[in-house]
Amino acid sequence: MEQENSFMRTRPVFRLLVSMSVPMMLSMLIQSLYNIVDSIYASWLGTDALTAVSLAYPLQNAIVSAGVGIGVGISSAISIHLGAGSQEKADRAATMGIVLTVFHCLLFILAGLFITRPFLSLFTEDPAILEDACSYTRIVLCLSFGALLQIAFEKIFQSIGKMKVTMLLLIAGCVINIILDPILIFGLLGFPALGVAGAAIATVIGQICAFLLYIVVYMRKSYAVHLRAKYIRPDWQIIRQIYSVGIPSTVMMLMPSVLISILNRILASFSDLYVAVLGVYYKLQTFIYMPANGIVQGMRPILGYNYGAGETRRVRSTIRYSLVCAAAIMLLGTVLSLLIPEQIFALFDADEELMSAGVSALRIISAGFLISSIGVIYSGTFEALGDGRRSLAISLLRQFVITIPVSFILSRFMGPAGIWIAFPAGEICAAVVAFFLLRFYQKGAFSPL
């Protein structure tokens, strides 16, 4: 089994990174479409429906945050143990990761039943918007087991370098969602028109199908890690290892939800229009950040394996190449946001007022895309090395510690534009701190510069 993964310490670094990252970049681009398609169809139902989906985003993102966060902890533990040659610990990490994920599924069912309406009622007083938002959110929370278990298996397969498998299965789930969306939302092919609830049902069906496909693929072949019933008993050392990375990673991914919730309260004081703008932006920015996160996902198993194997030079080279690739993606995103923002917002059938506000917001926020490459890559680096605290520190600066206070202050003098300015301000501060954190980590052993 170690021989099966030895390519991570023998293949040329750049070619290895590309072979691991490109499938994940394609996957993330497809997932961006997965995330954005609900909003596009919802916009055809009217601005109220689009606002309802936007309000549901924080709780929907909480599912992904918990799944990916713990999944990153699972992946990090497996990669490090495989690099160190410990097959048993790698198998224990995979098995315990699935057990923890099942426990999280139960928690989200309770959240869907008891938290949905009190939470969403904080952000709108319009009864129609609130009902649509509650309907959408309850469905995705109570049936979140598909998303959570799909992500757990995805991270297990990524930890052993099976990126093409995860790409194909993610695409399969996305395609199912995209096909079902118009059918269930607008009542095509004899189905009832379910509106916003139809978008939610299409989403969870796609996720459940992807999870079931992972089960089929896993059962058909022997892989470098195994799920074993004898390892279901709690192994507190493995649990601590998973959560030491997984909890900070989950908090890191929850930051957009917390950030959006707070910013929605500020923006609502100006107009519900700006709430819709922020919701659309967070759908759009996935087209830029998801490919960059694809690089991070391709980078993590390489870093973890070589860190476990003591290959410091390869760790450094991997970080360096990852920075260059992420910067290229972010530069492209900046150029597109500055040159064709109208065409981008036209995807949402934006009226004149939404178009004007959205174009202004996108042009301001895009100023922070390029510098954010450092924060994104360095945060992923610390996750791969098993240091969740430093990764969390970078993410808090990017999406909380700087952005929220600056938004409060500038919005008092500049209106919504002050909130948009806070985004690049947070990215700049996070990039500076991230640079020095890695520069002095283990005496600079992994600093790429």
From TrEMBL:
GO terms for cellular component: plasma membrane. The keyword Transport applies. It is a multi-pass membrane protein. Its main location: membrane. The chain crosses the membrane at residues 12-34, 62-82, 94-115, 135-153, 165-189, 195-217, 238-260, 321-340, 360-380, 392-411, 417-438. GO terms for biological process: monoatomic ion transport. Coiled coil: none annotated. GO terms for molecular function: antiporter activity; xenobiotic transmembrane transporter activity. Belongs to the multi antimicrobial extrusion (MATE) (TC 2.A.66.1) family. This is Probable multidrug resistance protein NorM. It comes from Candidatus Mediterraneibacter quadrami.
